[in-house]
Amino acid sequence: MIQESLSVRYPMPAHPASSSIGSARCLSRRIIALFACLVSVGTGCPGMMPTPPIEPLAPPAAGQGFQLKTLPITVSAGQENQDCYFFRVPSSEDVFVHRMVLRQRTGSHHLNVFRVGTLKNLRGEDGEVVKGGNDQKNPCWVSSNWSDWPLVINSQSSDPGHETVDYALPTGVAQKFLPGELLMVQSHYVNATTQVTPDSGEAWINFEYMPKADVKSELGTFFATNQNLRICPGETKYFEKVCRFGHAATVVAANGHFHSRGTRFSMFAWDETNGKGSQFYDNTSWSDPVMARELAVPIPDKGGVLYRCEFTAPADLCGNPQDGCCFTFGPTVETSEHCNAFIYYYPRLAGDNFCF
To answer: What is the rounded CA–CA span in Å between residue 341 and residue 223?
Structure first.
């Protein structure tokens, strides 16, 4: 594990199918990757005039919030890069966040922010970064290291024109942060056949406050991941899992996450008596998935969410050569798969939820 000091951050003062189908999809993805390179011309397209990169996200005004950011990185051709940054909430009192704005340079696979829980192999202090690089055995890559680290916010948007996610919570709802609370920002960039990083990788996250007196309910999060995945070349499969809430709640936002063999991600309300209920999330884009916002999905007491991931593995692609070239759960975009659900709800009450 390599740790560095993080040199740049902006704290603010405290404030209250078939083989032919598979081959066509593979070709389509490569064309999409090339198109992304062409429309965001940079170091990924040598010999061409670069276009200006996106503007850095300006931090909130003094006393109105705080900003976290990652360092600029270069991702070599054929590589993936994942780093974990640690920050403490720059406040001496509780703060309540009503709006979160995330911005990433093109090429990001995901940007996740977690509250740090049990410290295992992955650890760091304020201003430190664990450089995971392309080493999938590094603690920054291993999901078990943060199995009880509650989700704060996530973004999978970095395609040209979609680099920014601006999420304001429903009226009266805020996310509470404790003084000096330790957070971890995980940034994953890809520069390979499925995704391209044409310029440097970099990300910014703004947290904007609201007065404590205006808070009526606290936001909670649900981080779920189905790790029992296995899709072999030429196969089409789906996987479903139910995750239960500890109390009645209202889902206000949701996001699904899988890799390039994923074809559809769906979420449904679920209850003990009737099982699968109404669908509230549907996404067919793996590289720039929908983040559904402005939802108001009632979840009954002892109820939950059923989420479903559908996959097709092209017959001419190989995941794990030691397992019949099948694609199983793992962190790399090129050779493994994910089926993760990110769910935002209120009230938080007893804390955040996990479903592994």
So the answer is: 6
- pLDDT, tens only, 142-157: 977 888 999 999 999 8
C-alpha distance from residue 219 to each of 124, 179, 180, 197, 215 (Å): 26, 17, 19, 33, 10
Give the model's confidence band at 350: pLDDT under 50 very low, under 70 low, under 90 confident, else very high.
confident
- The span from the CA of 189 to the CA of 201, in Å, is 7
Q: Give the global pTM.
A: 0.85
- Predicted confidence (pLDDT) at residue 210 exceeds the cutoff of 80: yes
* Fold (topology level) of 219-355: Jelly Rolls (2.60.120)
Rounded Cα–Cα distance for residues 115 and 184 (Å)? 6
Q: Is the pLDDT of residue 259 over 60?
A: yes
Q: Which pairing describes strands 173-177 and 217-218: parallel, antiparallel, or unpaired?
A: parallel
pLDDT score of 147: 81
Listed in sequence order, the residues at least 6 apart from 31 whose beta carbon sits closer than 8 Å to its beta carbon are none
For tokens 């991600």, name the residue. Answer: 265
Question: Residue 249, exposed/middle/buried by CB under 10 A (0-12, 13-18, 19+)?
Answer: buried
Place of tokens 């965001």: 40
> Which sequence spans correspond to the domains of the chain?
3-214, 219-355
